[in-house]
Amino acid sequence: MKLLNLLSLPALALAFTPSNLQSRSVTKLNSSPVESGLVDLAKKQNPVVGYFDPLSLAEQEFWGQSTDATIGFLRQAEIKHGRVA
């Protein structure tokens, strides 16, 4: 039984690997937080912390939309869950 469990582990790991990713062209409106003014806004609103985005979420595009739409989605999610955006 233990041998069977050990042999099935590689198959489980393969289930979570990404499939072939197709390239798509996406037009970025604001390619960085500096261009969108997030860094200046963060420093003005909280000079102690400043701009803090360790996962670079402000540079991502969720669901193939622009970075402005992604930033709006993240702000709304933080407001919804009781965090300060």
Could you please describe the fold and organization of this structure?
With 85 residues, this protein is mostly helical. It has helices spanning 2-15, 33-36, 38-45, 67-80. Mean pLDDT is 76; it is low at 26-30.
Counting DSSP H or I runs of 4 or more residues, the number of helices is: 4
Give the mean pLDDT: 76
Major sheet characteristics: none
Q: Secondary-structure element sequence?
A: HHHH
Radius of gyration, rounded?
20 Å
Low-confidence residue ranges: 26-30
The structural class is mainly alpha
What layout of secondary structure does this protein have?
Elements: H1 2-15, H2 33-36, H3 38-45, H4 67-80
Descriptive keywords:
single chain, 85 residues, mainly alpha, 4 helices, 47% helix, 0% strand, elongated
